[in-house]
């Protein structure tokens, strides 16, 4: 039986590399690719692949948001989050959001294939370094992310604000009223102990949730 996979990543080189690795296996077929989260969600809705490799950092709709929204839409696709080497932007939250796996872009080809097969089989897959980071965090040996205190929707809004999106744009994209977004913003600032979006952006970068914020 053919295993269908989609690749959602804003770097063409990464998509090409994954496609070449997956293409070496006769029972795995890459059925679609997308360069951003919004297009990726549309692809998941239209093609319903068994597995999707989703970059955690993308402009606009992030991998975290893709995972959250795919779950809310009850899409059948199992999502494997892909991060840069050494990053671990709270995998616990991503798994709670509905991700079935977590690998790094520096993983070996055989690990990527193992992750895809395992997740397609209904099991979870965590890269060894990610599993170790989670274990250390559970033991209190790693610094806990303040973003853990946010609800899923608060997290979505905070990431959008951190990327510099206007509140009206966030409201439209998340199908919320501007007043509701303002309320989420207030809650996020209160929970994180901050008072402006610049600090939010730097904090989100510090904990591996977004790429480095651009200087004004």
* Major beta sheet summary: 6 strands, parallel
Q: Number of helical runs?
A: 10
Order of secondary-structure elements: EHEHEHEHEHEHHHHH
Low-confidence stretches: none
Order of strands side by side in the largest beta sheet?
2-1-3-4-5-6
- The best one-word shape is globular
CA(first)-CA(last) distance: 52 Å
Q: State the secondary-structure class.
A: alpha/beta
What is the alpha-carbon Rg in Å? 17 Å
Write the CATH architecture name of the largest domain. 3-Layer(aba) Sandwich
CATH topology label of the largest domain: Rossmann fold
Q: CATH homologous superfamily of the largest domain - what is it?
A: Response regulator
Range of helix content: 40-55%
Number of strands: 6
- Regarding CATH, which class of the largest domain? Alpha Beta
Provide mean pLDDT, rounded: 85
Strand content: 5-15%
Structure description:
The protein is an alpha/beta fold and 216 residues long. The chain folds into two domains: 3-138, 3-Layer(aba) Sandwich (Rossmann fold), CATH 3.40.50.2300; 146-206, Orthogonal Bundle (Arc Repressor Mutant, subunit A), CATH 1.10.10. The protein is built from ten helices and six strands; from the N terminus they run E-H-E-H-E-H-E-H-E-H-E-H-H-H-H-H. It has helices at residues 12-23, 37-47, 63-72, 91-97, 109-120, 128-138, 152-162, 167-173, 178-192, 197-206; strands spanning 3-8, 28-34, 51-55, 78-83, 101-104, 125-126. The protein has a six-stranded parallel β-sheet with strand order 2-1-3-4-5-6, sandwiched between helices. Helix 5 links the parallel strand 5 and strand 6 (125-126). Helix 7 crosses helix 9. The chain is globular, with a radius of gyration of 17 Å.
């Amino acid at each position: 039986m053919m295993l269908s996979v989609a690749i959602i990543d804003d770097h063409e080189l990464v998509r090409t590399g994954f496609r070449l690795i997956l293409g070496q296996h006769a029972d795995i077929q890459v059925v679609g690719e997308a360069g951003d989260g919004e297009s990726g969600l549309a692809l998941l809705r239209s093609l319903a692949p068994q597995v999707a490799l989703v970059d955690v950092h993308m402009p606009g709709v992030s991998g975290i948001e893709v995972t959250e929204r795919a779950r809310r839409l009850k899409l059948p696709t199992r999502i494997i989050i892909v991060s840069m080497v050494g990053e671990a932007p709270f995998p616990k939250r991503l798994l709670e959001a509905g991700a079935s796996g977590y690998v790094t872009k520096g993983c070996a080809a055989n690990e990527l294939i193992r992750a895809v097969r395992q997740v397609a089989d209904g099991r979870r897959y965590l890269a060894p370094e990610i599993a170790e980071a989670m274990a250390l965090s559970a033991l209190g040996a790693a610094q806990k992310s303040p973003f853990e205190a946010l609800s899923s929707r608060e997290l979505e809004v905070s990431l959008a604000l951190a990327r510099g999106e206007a509140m009206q744009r966030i409201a439209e994209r998340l199908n919320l009223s501007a007043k509701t977004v303002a309320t989420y913003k207030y809650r996020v600032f209160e929970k994180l102990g901050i008072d402006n979006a610049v600090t939010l952006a730097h904090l989100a970068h510090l904990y591996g949730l977004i790429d480095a914020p651009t200087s004004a």
